[in-house]
Amino acid sequence: MGITSVYTYLQLCFSLYFLLLQFFAPDYLDIGYICSVLVGVFGLLSVHYYGCYITKFDRRVVSIRNLFVVFYVIVYFQYPLDYLLGYNVTMTWIYKTDIFCGALNFSALCLSLFLLGYSLLPVPKRLPILTINRVRFPYVWPFIVLALGCFFLFTQRMGFSFFMGGYGSEGDGSTIEDVSGARFFNYLQLFLKIVIIMVVWNHFKDEKRIDSIKSYLKLFPLPFVILYFSIVILWFTAGGRAVSITLLLFFFCGYLILSKKDIPFFYAFILVIVGGLFFSLFKIMGGLTFSHYEGVDIMEAISRGYDYYQSYNENTSLFVPTRELSFSIYTYDIYYYWWSTDNVYGGLFLLLSILGTIPGLTPVLSQIIGIDLNNYYLAKIVTDYDAADRGLGSSCVGELLCDVGFPVTVLLFFLIGILLRKLDTAFLEKHGKFSLLQFILVFSYLSTVFFAPRGSLLSGISSSIFIYILLRSYALVAQRVSK
């Protein structure tokens, strides 16, 4: 039995351990049970990463797996750890005590299967060079013009006041209520991302290394850079922090791919601290939402936002910069409770998310079945069930659990682990050979992995396949036109 097989077997043992614990989950806050789960998580992570270190595989700090695990641990385990260690945690973030332990252990089970799937594939010694046709994209301006058009139409539809706190001021706080505005918004993001993929792909296939941010920026047309970062800033002031950060990450994913640079562990740790503080301080700018629907001036709105931010930091924690993110366990527990009351949708929302990537299909389906699918999603259902005064958002574990049930959820986490191993393998500096679909998937997951524990793990696949089909078709048309 090779050393890789030994560590894979040990991780399988941890999965069986959490599966066994699931059957003995108490219906009250049991310190001993919580301790058993968290010690198991610590052991699982130690075995997994030590196994990677021993086999000298994937020692990069910047990888999709590492980023996902860091934020997964914060979202699902930091609050229980604070509670276990006796910090002055507020009990209002525990939705129901009778399901807390079971929900905690199930998130640990999903993590163990994700890491097991990631470790299952053998360590590659060398990846074969792909013998596919060298697809190139000679013209990026059509998509830049389309992005400008969508931005203009969106502004005309929603009004420029939208960018002063309008995002999330209505509904559940996670979508744009106006259907036409939401459609322009989605197409705008799509065209912006397509331009980045096209530019980076062309230079990646030329095997030209980019050594600085400045040289990376020069790859793009100046009007596109101005438009892109203007939108990032405007959505920040609108209150769409996830949109702004996702766009920033998507843009700089290309730099990581072309430069093939890694970040030392110490600097990565500092970035986590700074990032946690940055996420928390977004609450200050989030106060701009008050100016949208209460008619107060901007400075007063920011002041209210600061007071709101302060209220999140009244209690101490083992790691204060990420404490706000750890409160996300409240949302996850609501999903878990919803599932425990026999609310499982048989994969309906997974199917809708896949169909939703096809332009124009959602309105057609809405007309056929008589339900507005733009306003039919799990986050809204759970928010309405809890009668929350704000949008609760999503949870990658909880949403899958409610949608497809216990067995399929753990299976999907296992398969996602295998997928991310393939993407990280292609992302390694010493290999660096992508197919176009892999290339798009790496962009999708690297740019959204920070939000994946609080979002969806599968949306990146469906959207990437759609972008892939679109780009292959565009390359074929461009090739014929050029002849």
Largest sheet: none
Low-confidence stretches at least 5 residues in length (pLDDT < 50)?
Answer: 169-174
The structural class is mainly alpha
N-to-C order of helices and strands: HHHHHHHHHHHHHHHHHHHHH
Question: What helical percentage do the residues reach?
Answer: 55-70%
- What's the number of helices? 21
How many β-strand runs?
Answer: 0
Percent in strands: under 5%
Give the mean pLDDT: 79
| C-alpha Rg (nearest Å) | 23 Å
Q: What is the straight-line distance between the termini?
A: 56 Å
Shape call: globular
Q: Can you offer a commentary on this structure?
A:
By secondary structure, the protein is an all-alpha fold. Helices cover 68% and strands 0% of the residues. Helix 1 packs antiparallel against helix 2 (31-54), helix 1 packs antiparallel against helix 4 and helix 4 packs across helix 19 (406-427). The chain is globular and about 70 Å long. The protein starts with a helix and ends with a helix.
SSE inventory with pairings:
Blueprint: H1 3-22, H2 31-54, H3 64-84, H4 97-120, H5 141-158, H6 179-205, H7 213-217, H8 222-238, H9 241-259, H10 265-286, H11 288-293, H12 298-311, H13 323-326, H14 329-340, H15 348-355, H16 361-369, H17 378-386, H18 396-404, H19 406-427, H20 436-448, H21 459-482
Helix pairs in contact: 1-2, 1-4, 2-3, 2-4, 3-4, 4-14, 4-19, 5-6, 6-9, 8-9, 9-20, 10-12, 14-18, 18-19, 19-20, 20-21
